Amino acid sequence: MMDLQTADALHLAGNIDAAADAYRRLIAADQDNVAAWHGFGAARLRAGAFGEANDALLRVVRARPEEVGAWGHFAEALFKLGDVEGAIAAYRRVADADSMRAAAEENLAIIMPGSTVAANADVYAARRSWGRRLADGVSPVERPPRPPSSGKLRIGYVSAFFDKANWMKPVYGVINRHDRDHFEVHLVSLGGDPSTSAGYRGYDRDVIWQVGACDDEKVARLLAAAGIDVLVDLNAHSAAKWLRLFLRRPAPVQLAWFNSLATSGLDCFDGIVGDDTVIPASEEGFYTERVLRVRGTYLAFEVFHAAPDVVPPPCLGNHGYLTFGALASAYKLNDLTLDIWTRILRSAPTSRLLVRARTLAEPSNRDHLLARLAARGVAAERVDLEGGAPHLDFLRSYDRVDIALDTFPYNGGTTTTEALWQGVPVLTYIGDRWVARTSASLLRAAGLDDWVASGEDDLVAKASALTRDPATAARLADLRAGMRARLAASAACDTAGLCLALEQIYRQFRS
Predict the structure, then answer these.
(1) Residue 416: which of 404, 399, 432 has the closest Cα?
(2) What is the CATH number of the domain that holds 182?
(3) Are residues 418 and 501 in the same domain?
(4) Prediction pTM value
(5) Are 327 and 414 within 8 A, CB to CB?
């Protein structure tokens, strides 16, 4: 008969499915075997079955509330399912244990901007607290005299995601346009490397650093020795451990751009790049960095990867009813987002909703989301939930969407740019923090101000009016047909202008 020790051994060896089966047999023999429930929940968490993991781990924390390891696993499952507030509460319980406090504070710093109840001050406090902990014991490296060069400004871009074509649209839009006669470009790759398939054009004089296998201190010493003038972080908390690199101050000027979404909470950044929409002047006090703004949008993008042709809106062929859609990460599907979507669906009884995310390929994750929608009165037959797909096929999902719905407060970035590029307008509203304004930044830059509501009620009213207006189908058809031309002529795709603005910022710090 299978025992707990054998099941745990399978788990530790990475035989996740076999371990889960072993835990199931133990649970079938004894429904009160809390250790087996914990093992099963952890195994299903590692397998991406967050719905099953959530149910199992909930039993554990109820039976043994003192078990902080279970609370940590439970917090992760809650977050992956979109329950950000539940995850924050669970991580705070974990933070009470000395052995897990550092990891809990890191996770709180990462996810706090997506909380529906946190304010800017809460985001600042969470990131400041973890930032101090991260900085503890980290010393700056020595920067030797700058090696000789032709007088060019040496710019280093740091990313763990240079290979992600869908994410890098703003980044390569800028990097490809740098004036190589005046700037020496270094790409510091901490993960997948730059490639033409990801959008990087490749320049013989550029320097590609393949240093993901090194520790942050070694990378810092190498960059310092190379005489980098301005080091630009493109990761922020998406690769949180690498913030230690910037704490070591390998460059005299260090800036944050592209993926920040809130303050870093660290004292090692000289500036953070945003725009007037995402960081109004009244909120500069919530940043440890000097706020730097570019005109238009700080996310101006250029599409380098393959993308499907834009097709007419589906409402033209389905008797006029509208299909709303969201191709967003499931962790953004919190209660506020579902509440707003529910209000829209109630205001338009014939409309449908398509939600697509990689994690929704797993049955328990779909069931969990369907149950949350059902609890709000949304019938399952009005909703299509689909998992991920190769990127080109994933983008073809927009062929079946009339209007994209944003997520709140954690807006789309890549999701919004891709919806627009496929001709699909995005309904959003101006939120109360940076992460809640990224879509508004892009839409305003694209001249699509009509799709930016002033608040939740206004957004629902706009959606409701669109479903009732007999001219909506023709309006959407015209919009889609001309969307790419509109974008190309707008600040939303002015990567040349964004590049010039960033180059001016870099020069400003040099002088």
Answers:
(1) 404
(2) 3.40.50.11380
(3) no
(4) 0.96
(5) no
State how beta strands 253-256 and 230-233 pair: parallel
Q: Round to the nearest angstrom and report the end-to-end CA distance of the chain.
A: 73
pLDDT at 303 over 60: yes
Q: What angle do CA 80, 85, 89 make, to 5 degrees?
A: 100
DSSP string, 159-193: EEETT-TTT-HHHHHHHTT--TTTEEEEEEEEEEP
pLDDT tens sequence across 171-220 = 999 999 999 999 999 999 999 999 999 999 999 999 999 999 999 999 99
Residue position matching structure tokens 């950044």: 269
Q: Is residue 123 part of a domain?
A: no
- Cβ-count burial of 318 within 10 angstroms (0-12 exposed, 13-18 middle, 19+ buried)? middle
Q: Are residues 251 and 353 in the same domain?
A: no
* Rounded Cα gap, residues 233 and 214, in angstroms: 17
Domain containing residue 24 = 4-115
Q: Residue 511 — pLDDT band, cuts 50, 70, 90?
A: low
For residues 326 and 384, is the Cβ–Cβ distance under 8 A? no
Count of other CB atoms within 10 angstroms of residue 160: 18
Q: Give the model confidence (pLDDT) of 102-126 as tens digits.
A: 999 999 999 999 999 999 999 999 9
Would you say residue 120 lies in a domain?
no
